[in-house]
């Protein structure tokens, strides 16, 4: 009896194997009609990351993962190149007028949407007006503040129509020429406002006219873009599949498919990379770095980035409304040890928001040293005295707060626990809490937090990064809700200038103020880290962490 | 009778080994402040992830804390959660199971459907919902595990009561006019005790495992308070560079759960009424 069932099992396996072999044979052959002999074409890249994308749409841009995934699907007028400067993408080139307030873009011809419709200047105009539309959620809007009529068009109590304006912010000259009219020179406009994806007017015009937010449209479920890869399917919190767009305007992409796998646990993701279940991992857990580096089958690229790790403090509420308390908290931390021990080998100690690879970085500013005595003096100056248990208090209130970070961010959880102990030595009562990503982001962006260990990405132009400390932006990016009139003045002045040499001294001054004020207890500059199957080649690394994904059409399997 | 049970239990060698191991662990947990070799909470950033040596028998964790001391303190939290969750599950389960088994009829139908309902909710899902709504922590973990476990207890108790209901001594007591509460407490419960005790022992072990699972997901006891689960969770991030953290944390969960199961087995055999008096 046993023998019989065993032989049946074997025959079933043989049949299944035969079926599998015959079934997958033809499917594996790439449909090579153009380059039959070029071995670079074909293959599926599986990319693992901790969270799902918020929208398959480039306009809302909630988090870094949105930038990454939308970079495959969508395309922009310019992209940031390896040197940090914008390069033309959907544009042939552009002209800037003498007064730097009129920018004319000449668009590529014969560019097609994934549904076959032609791309024209009308799509660009539509995208800009959609971003300006106050009914539409978008984090790009602040980067367009220098456009003519910005205030009137974005007024949430009844936005103006472009027709009512003396000068329109965008003018379509012809199908392939578009002009941007600025109200002041703005060095950040091209790299920051125009490096974002264009959306199709022919599919979205009616929805936007009807007052819908982009998240309410059918488009987000069946997105159509201009990018190198087109949408196939999306299983929420599981995976998203893309396939190459043969008519891509920069040439047919090498890779046949992209499978974006959501792997919530980063140590599992590292293990998946090791076993070959995924081909590419971005932002590996720091604790996994040394193990991954030892693997022969995995290559990595670690380079200077724009990201920054630090404890962001809500400076609007006590006790963090007092500069001396913030300084004391920073002096109390042996940040060098915390960064080295928990935040990863590749991270260097930060002195402020601008990393050394950006021209506005001020090399004369040193990070605060570990100086618990100085911390105690500062707290005493601010009126805090220890009670019988050694807990600092003022007017009967203990110096207590909660530090939060994301539930996936094990390295920041560990850093927080280490900081908790340093602060406890100073007499602070600190709770730690790990929170689900979207929940914490929402509270953090709306000022409903005390202290949060977060890793925001800086902008490619320092104006964007500095803008996060301008009091005008308290509800739009200034998450520490920091308000300092002298700093505001310096940033306003710098914003009017376009030459780096003129801007630099102002930004150095701004960095001095931020260093003294410590709205953020800066910890470290985060390098961009990418880990991948050794067969993959052709990556283009840029200072923007997600910039690599805008050049994925050049990547191929070399085997 | 107790004498006889004890004798039989002591003849069950594996159960005795379990009992001894468990006693040591429980005593260490109770007297944690006196028996732990180092401060379990004091971090030492210059001395992190040190392998086991003569100073730190089980090595140090990612914060330079002594792993052995944290396991001893962690035993307090893990055992307390296990014990309290088992207690809660028993109180609810015995109450519902007794009422259903004793009264029968419509009451039984209603109570057992309620039990079925709770039984059919996936345990982890119920716990995740509770923790998501009320936030993680010690008491939340106890409540969540207790709520997940009681249906099993209720079924055991009801089944025993159904058996006992038709016993001659119960019919005799009823004929003599004994009140329901007298019947339940004097006749039913003591005779249902054997399977109930076994059930409680096994649940205690399961509760410790579940607590470890919840802590692993970050939903159990919150740092810096150690529990075996969060020692395991904190250690898993450093499996490559400091395998001793998770290993020793896991070994203690394993020994404890195995001990409870051995004791459960021993109790089942020694309490089996069919063997008593033989």
Q: What does the model show?
A:
The complex is a heterodimer of chains A (559) and B (278). Chain A is of the alpha+beta class. Chain A is built from 16 helices and 22 strands. Chain A has helices spanning 2-28, 64-73, 121-132, 150-153, 189-193, 201-209, 266-275, 289-293, 323-331, 335-343, 372-381, 410-426, 437-445, 462-467, 485-495, 500-517; strands spanning 44-49, 78-80, 86-88, 91-96, 102-107, 170-174, 177-181, 229-235, 239-244, 257-262, 280-282, 298-313, 348-349, 385-386, 392-394, 397-398, 400-406, 429-435, 451-454, 520-533, 536-537, 556-557. In chain A, strands 1, 8, 9, 10, 11, 12, 13, 17, 18, 19 and 20 form an eleven-stranded mixed beta sheet that branches. In chain A, strands 4-5-7-6 form a four-stranded antiparallel beta sheet, covered by helices on one side. A three-stranded antiparallel beta sheet of chain A has the order 14-15-16, with no helix packed on it. In chain A, strand 14 (385-386) and strand 15 form a beta hairpin. Chain A is globular and about 75 Å long. The two termini of chain A are 48 Å apart. Chain B is an all-alpha fold and 278 residues long. Helix content of chain B is 75%, strand content 0%. Chain B has helices spanning 2-11, 13-30, 32-35, 67-103, 105-120, 123-134, 138-165, 168-175, 180-216, 228-236, 243-271. The longest helix of chain B is centred in the N-terminal third of the chain and has 37 residues, at 67-103. Chain B is elongated, with a radius of gyration of 22 Å. At the A-B interface, helix 10 and helix 12 of A face loops of B.
């Amino acid at each position: 009896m046993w023998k019989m069932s065993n032989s049946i099992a074997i025959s079933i396996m043989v049949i299944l194997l035969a079926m599998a072999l015959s079934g997958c044979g033809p499917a594996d052959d790439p449909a090579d009609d153009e380059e039959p002999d070029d071995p670079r074409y074909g293959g599926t890249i599986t990319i693992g990351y901790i969270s799902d994308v918020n929208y398959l749409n480039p306009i809302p841009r909630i988090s870094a993962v949105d930038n990454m995934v939308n970079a495959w699907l969508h395309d922009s007028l310019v992209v940031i190149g390896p040197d940090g400067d914008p390069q033309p993408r959907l544009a042939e080139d552009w002209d800037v007028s003498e007064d730097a307030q009129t920018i004319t873009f000449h668009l590529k011809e014969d560019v097609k949407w994934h549904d076959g419709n032609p791309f024209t200047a009308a799509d660009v105009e539509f995208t800009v007006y959609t971003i300006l539309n106050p009914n539409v959620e978008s984090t790009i809007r602040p980067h367009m503040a220098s456009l003519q009529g910005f205030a009137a068009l974005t007024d949430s109590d009844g936005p103006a129509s472009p027709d009512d304006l003396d000068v329109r912010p965008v003018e379509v000259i012809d199908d392939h020429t578009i002009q941007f009219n600025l109200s002041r020179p703005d060095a950040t406009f091209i790299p920051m406002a125009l490096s974002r994806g264009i959306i199709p007017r022919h599919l979205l015009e009616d929805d936007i006219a009807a007052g819908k937010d982009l998240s309410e449209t059918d488009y987000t479920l069946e997105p159509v873009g201009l990018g190198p890869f087109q949408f196939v399917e999306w299983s929420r919190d599981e995976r998203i599949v893309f396939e190459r767009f043969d008519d891509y305007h920069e040439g047919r992409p090498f890779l046949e498919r992209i499978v974006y796998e959501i792997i919530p646990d980063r140590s599992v993701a590292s293990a998946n990379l090791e076993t070959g279940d995924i081909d590419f991992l971005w932002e590996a857990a720091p604790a996994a770095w040394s193990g991954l580096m030892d693997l022969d089958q995995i290559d990595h690229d670690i380079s200077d980035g724009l990201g920054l790790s630090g404890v962001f403090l809500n400076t609007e509420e006590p006790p963090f409304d007092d500069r001396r308390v913030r300084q004391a908290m920073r002096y109390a931390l042996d940040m060098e040890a915390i960064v080295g021990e928990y935040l990863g080998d590749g991270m260097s100690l930060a002195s402020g928001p601008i990393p050394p690879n950006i021209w506005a970085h001020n090399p004369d500013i040193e990070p605060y040293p570990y100086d618990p005595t100085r911390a105690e003096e500062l707290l005493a100056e601010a009126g805090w005295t220890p009670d019988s248990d050694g807990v600092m208090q003022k007017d009967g209130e203990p110096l207590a707060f909660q530090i939060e970070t994301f539930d996936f961010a094990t390295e920041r959880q560990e850093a927080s626990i280490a900081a908790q102990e340093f602060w406890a030595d100073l007499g602070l009562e600190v709770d730690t809490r790990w929170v689900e990503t979207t929940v914490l982001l929402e509270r953090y962006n709306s000022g409903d937090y005390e202290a949060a260990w977060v890793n925001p990405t800086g902008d490619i132009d320092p104006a964007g990064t500095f803008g996060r400390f301008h009091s005008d932006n308290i509800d739009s990016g200034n998450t520490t809700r920091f308000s300092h009139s002298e700093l505001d003045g310096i940033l306003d002045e710098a914003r009017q200038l376009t030459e780096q040499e003129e801007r630099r001294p102002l930004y150095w001054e701004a960095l001095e103020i931020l260093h003294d004020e410590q709205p953020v207890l800066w910890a470290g500059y985060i390098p961009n880290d990418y880990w991948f199957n050794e067969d993959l080649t052709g990556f283009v690394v840029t200072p923007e962490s997600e910039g690599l994904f805008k050049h994925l059409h050049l990547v191929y399997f070399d085997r | 009778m107790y004498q006889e049970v004890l004798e039989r239990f002591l003849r069950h060698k594996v159960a005795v080994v379990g009992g001894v191991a468990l006693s040591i662990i429980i005593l260490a947990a109770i007297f944690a402040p006196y028996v732990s070799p180092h401060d379990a909470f004091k971090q030492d950033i210059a001395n992190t992830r040190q392998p086991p040596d003569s100073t730190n028998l089980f090595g140090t964790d990612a914060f330079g804390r002594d792993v052995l001391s944290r396991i001893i303190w962690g035993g307090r939290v893990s055992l307390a959660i296990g014990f309290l969750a088992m207690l809660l599950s028993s109180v609810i389960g015995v109450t519902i199971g007794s009422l259903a088994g004793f009264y029968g009829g419509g009451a039984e139908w209603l109570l057992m459907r309620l039990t079925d309902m709770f039984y059919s909710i996936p345990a982890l899902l119920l716990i995740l919902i509770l923790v998501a709504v009320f936030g993680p922590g010690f008491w939340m973990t106890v409540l969540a595990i207790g709520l997940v476990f009681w249906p099993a207890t209720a079924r055991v108790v009801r089944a025993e009561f159904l058996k006992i209901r038709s016993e001659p001594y119960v019919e005799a007591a009823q004929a003599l006019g004994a009140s329901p509460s007298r019947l339940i407490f004097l006749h039913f419960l003591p005779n249902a005790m054997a399977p109930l005790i076994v059930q409680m022992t096994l649940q205690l072990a399961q509760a410790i495992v579940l607590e470890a699972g919840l802590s692993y997901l970050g939903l159990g006891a919150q740092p810096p308070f150690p529990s075996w689960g969060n020692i395991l969770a904190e250690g898993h991030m450093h499996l490559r560079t400091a395998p001793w953290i998770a290993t020793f944390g896991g070994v203690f969960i394993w020994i404890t759960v195995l001990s409870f199961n051995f004791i459960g087995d021993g109790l089942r055999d020694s309490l089996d009424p069919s063997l008593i008096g033989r």
